[in-house]
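pinning this so it doesn't scroll away 📌
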Amino acid sequence: MTRTSLDRTLRRSYWILSIVLVVSLVAKLCEHIPGLAGTPLEKPLKDIYEYLKDMALVFVTVVAAYLANVFQRRQMFVTALKEEWREIIKAKSALFTYTQLDQPTLEDYLAAFCAISETIDNMRTVYENVGETDERIGLYPFAPLHDMRRAFQTLEPRKNVITPEDRKLVRDAILQSFYAVREGFLGELDLEAPESPILIFGARRLKKPGQTAAAGSYQVAQTAQHDRLVPPDPRIYGFLKELHDKEQATPKAWRQVANGAAAHPESGAAPETPAPLT
């Protein structure tokens, strides 16, 4: 079920539910509403209210089951969309890789061609063609995939002498078509902006090395427990400790080290929080 179909179904359900609620409210209060109280309509309205009250559980159960089925169909559709999107990305990568090869083999070509061909055919498990009827084929829903295929076919090694310029032109055409597909295809997934986006280039890790006092104490206690229950092999322990200390004392883009060293639980001291490098 597409997003549009889901929205249409939910709107229809909300309207029906609203109408039922309004009718039940009017039926309940009919004896207090001018123009209805004391008229021949009052008794039928009360009967309607009693009927709706008696059928309330059935009505709620039916509506809940219907909406559950609708959302289940939507979830299945979204899952199929995500799988098809993965196939599109794989096909794009296969075509892009091929255009980078100076001397591709026929096997390279056939593997990449099969990737885009299978992706095009697999779209039939997600969408029917636009304007398709029992008599007419309709239009393929994401035509840029065929642009990618046609551009790639000009690089078939059995039929053409391929130059670097040819490969670059095909590569640019493939990327342009892929970006066009991405813009339309992902719109079907109801994607939302992240709550904690990182919108700057050259972003860095903001957290500093270190841990809470409780975590450091637990680490020290766990080390002591291991040493008591299973004494370490000096050869292996010395080897691993040397590697650990060297790694922790080596500054990295994601790890800042204070004074070229870091405290370890084996020493029995709480680890220090390293200061930023200058």
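📌 and the second one:
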Amino acid sequence: MITKLPIFYLMIFLPLVTIIMLAKGNLINAYTFAILLMIYALIFHPLISGLKLIAAKKIPENQFWYTFLPGWNWKHFSFLFFNK
């Protein structure tokens, strides 16, 4: 399911758009925005990317934690965002 590109895009971009819309609507302050953005960038995005890579058998399960290392997912960028 997560290997389908539209589902992946929805799972990646919907939370980010939600955070931005909350900030634009003045529903959250700058501090909350920064915390949510850090959670998104450091936890949520690598989690979803890692799950997609495991589901597609691009990485073994024991390498899942590597997705949380900054920059590690760049070598899988074309697969993650274009399924190539």
